[in-house]
Amino acid sequence: MVITKTPYRVSFFGGGSDFPAWYLDHGGAVLSTTINKYCYISLRNLPRFFDHMHRFVYSEIESVKNIEEIKHPAIRGILSELNWRDGIEMHHDGDLPARSGLGASSSFSVGLLNALYALRGLRRSPEQLALEAINIEQNIIAESVGSQDQIAAAFGGFNKISFLRDGGFKVDPIILPKGRSQELLDHLMLFYSGESRYSAKIEASKIESIEKSTIHFNKIYDSVDRAISILERGTEDISNFGDLLEQMWQEKKLLSPLVTSDAIEYMHTKAIAAGAIGFKVLGAGGGGFCLVFASPENQPKIRNALGKFLEIPFAFERQGSSVTLYNPEQI
């Protein structure tokens, strides 16, 4: 049996500039970190004495005789692309809900690819896993998704991810002054809005508006280097990071009316009134998790103001998708 553990991510700045429709013409960049919340995939070869060839357990259970019958688009796309022939059983477990803005679908794709290769006795580099997951999601199953989540899940860590006009990418780890990483973490709060959404529809609406939203995309793109500058200069007030987060949330809302909702606007209003400096919805928007930036002394008031929403404690994670083998002699 193979088990992969693949982190979810929090994207701070630059989201949207990782769409190929944007970065192939303009270049793009994001600032993101993986966190200590994970997608787990367990995988084993399935003995041949069952009526079905494959069994998949996620939010649904599928038992099928061939790949074409699989309903889950990522599983079907990955197995088809790898020309998979052996019977398998897969179980998926996640620390946090899907469709919530933390890159869960890409963590799933990267984790499943990693597990399938390990079951074959092969090891793929983070770059290979990221590129294959991007190809699966953007080309094979034709989802309207960007390119940051797959890279974050595969590499792990706190990084600037640059997207190049030639279609390539570059990952630059962010090295912060002593204590700065903890100072940033101490100013962050993560709340679940209670609303899940299909990000592809929201992202498609942003892609359609790229030509008339150039000024907003440019500001979002430029915010990445400004944010890194704030963090790397340990003498600069960390609250400037929160101010920038708030500014870019306002820019993000201008990309599509689907980015926000009544519930999100309620959370934003309550958080700011209670002393928050910055706020953003993670991922495509429209629901899922909201990130709040606030001084530690104001967090109890914010926690009280947002009391009906679930807060999720988290920490930064440095490792990307990893593999554990059980009974490797069977592989």
Shape: globular
* Domain module tally: 2
Helical residue percent band: 25-40%
Element string (H = helix, E = strand): EHEEEHEHHHEEHEHHHHEEHEEE
CATH top level of the largest domain?
Alpha Beta
Strand residues, percent: 15-25%
Report the average pLDDT across residues.
92
Return residue spans where pLDDT drops below 50 for at least 5 consecutive residues: none
Overview of the structural elements:
The protein is of the alpha+beta class and 331 residues long. It has 2 domains: 2-175 and 317-330, Ribosomal Protein S5, domain 2; 180-315, 2-Layer Sandwich (Alpha-Beta Plaits), CATH 3.30.70.890. It contains 11 helices and 13 strands. The protein has helices at residues 20-26, 73-81, 104-119, 126-140, 148-155, 180-186, 199-208, 214-232, 239-253, 262-273, 299-305, and strands spanning 2-13, 28-45, 54-57, 61-64, 88-94, 158-163, 169-173, 188-192, 278-281, 289-293, 310-311, 316-317, 322-325. The strands form 2 sheets. Strands 1, 2, 3, 4, 5, 6, 7, 12 and 13 form a 9-stranded mixed β-sheet that branches. A hairpin with a 3-residue loop joins strand 3 (54-57) and strand 4 (61-64). The relative contact order is 0.19. The model has no long low-confidence stretch (mean pLDDT 92).
